[in-house]
Specification:
260 residues; alpha/beta; 5-stranded parallel beta sheet; two-stranded antiparallel ribbon; 7 strands; elongated
Length: 260
């Protein structure tokens, strides 16, 4: 039995990995394949606006909202709004359908992502996403210290393929995605769902240390604290990454108190 159950959950995007290019640029590339002139720069900016507008209209990618939408419908409308303003000529609906299917597939396949093997030379560049250099070393250290790990992400099912494609899914005992659960961060319920799953696999425990790591103050830090977790923020632009985890929570280093 575990005397102390130590758990670290991670946000996904901008915590474990980052986009190498805007989805808007990907949309413009797919439009160009069909002969349409779409400015990548304009598409990148319009994607941000379209994503925010769709999130306000139908939160959580259309799941469990006052304006429910199917996942693919939600992303298709985001793509339409993005390309409508960035294209030099109108795109027929049938062409938009082709562009959407191709773009959605590019963000669905595990082979659509970049895998970096702990900073070594034996790396494989595929496209789109980059795993931060400190991720694999930290996951390995936590695993060796018998810390149980999970992912809590405001995203859809494709995040599972991303984690598999990046070759890190094996470190996580649970992967909780907002679209699947119907609940988004910062709701304490999404954090609670992840912890219940881990407790079910590894509990009971007389003591618990549960930490969430993410990049968003409201969604990750405040949401975790309100759920009874401890929390640590990362800021990749300022160089505040995962190695700080052991400085903030030194009790995560040792496995001596984990197993009776």
């Amino acid at each position: 039995m575990y005397k102390t159950l130590r758990v670290v959950t991670f946000d996904a995007f901008s915590t474990l990995f980052r986009l190498r290019k805007s989805p808007g640029i990907v949309y413009s590339e797919e439009a160009a394949r069909l002969g349409y002139n779409v400015s990548p720069e304009n598409a990148a900016g319009l994607f941000v606006r379209s994503y925010k507008a769709m999130t306000a209209f139908s939160p959580n990618f259309g799941a469990n909202s006052s304006n429910p939408m199917e996942l693919e419908q939600w992303w298709k409308e985001t793509l339409r709004r993005t390309l409508e303003g960035a294209s030099s000529s109108p795109l027929p609906l049938e062409e938009l359908e082709v562009i959407f299917k191709n773009a959605f597939a590019r963000f669905s396949r595990s082979e659509s992502f970049e895998v970096i093997n702990n900073g070594k030379q034996d790396f494989k560049i595929i496209t789109f996403l980059k795993l931060y250099d400190d991720v694999v070393p930290m996951l390995k250290q936590l695993d060796q210290a018998s810390v149980k790990m999970g992912v809590i992400s405001n995203s859809d099912y494709r995040t599972r393929a991303i984690l598999e494609g990046l070759n890190i899914s094996q470190y996580f005992s649970t992967i909780v995605l907002s679209h699947e659960l119907g609940i988004e961060k910062p709701s304490p319920d999404i954090f609670g769902a992840a912890l219940r799953e881990i407790r079910g696999k590894f509990g009971p425990a007389s003591e618990e240390l549960v930490v969430h790591v993410g990049d968003d103050t409201e969604k990750d830090h405040d949401g975790a604290i309100n759920a009874g977790f401890k929390a640590m923020l990362v800021d990749r632009e300022k160089g505040f990454g995962l190695p700080r985890l052991f400085d903030v929570f030194p009790e995560l280093r040792s496995s001596r108190t984990s197993i009776v």
